[in-house]
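Good morning N.,

You mentioned wanting to compare the apo and holo forms, so I went ahead and generated the holo version with uridine-5'-diphosphate. This is what I fed in:
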Amino acid sequence: SQSQPKYKRVLLKLSGEALMGEQEFGIDPKVLDRMALEIGALIGIGVQVGLVIGGGNLFRGAALNAAGMDRVTGDHMGMLATMMNGLAMRDALERSNIRTRVMSAIPMSGIVEHYDRRRALRDLKDGDVVIFCAGTGNPFFTTDSAACLRGIEIDADVVLKATKVDGVYSADPVKDPSAVKYETLTYDEVLDKKLGVMDLTAICLCRDQGMPVRVFNMNKSGALTRIVVGEAEGTLIE
Ligand code: UDP
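and this is what came out, ligand included:
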């Protein structure tokens, strides 16, 4: 039987690190192909997919700053890193025959289009994956904030944050075996318990606009599809 999607439009956030696979740096094309397969499954059941990709596999402004670089310059480099990841993701998606549009918050004429919300909405309705690059376009923000911002702007039903673990835990499950996974959390619980799922800017934006966030494990094959058809995966913050 065909699964009937619960969500019509989602904003998926992939961290840059997710693209590294087992590597220490950069992009693993095998990982991209697997992501393309997972995303293609959503398109296949008629779900509209907006994508925000991080840049942490290449550069992070805060890390460059800690090593002595000017923070704003570092953040600019971080945003350019998200652009490279976006191009790589588009390549993988298009090789899987999924029409993909890349839009950047920072104009980069000749390579990608400048972000245009109405254009993005038209493309999403046409069944194209739309990748939003360069974060918010501003230093001192993160791509988590960009994901929440774009998710709200395109009126997504949910922001899906892909991670390496199965959801939000009371402690780091890799280091602490007694850590328990939360099925649901409120935005205020995330803030009060200092759960560090996303930065405060991102969580507060979602809280203020009532945008639900689901944190899930993208390494689990089929998890993304299970979520959009309404199965419990990961942790829901709302
Ligand atoms: N960044 C920025 N403004 C934004 C989004 C990102 O300056 O709106 C920069 C920032 O330096 C950040 C880097 O881009 O460290 C990469 O993004 P992020 O750390 O969010 O990537 P992820 O952790 O998801 O891989």
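DSSP finds eight helices and nine strands in the chain.

Happy to go through it together on a call whenever suits you.

Best,
F.
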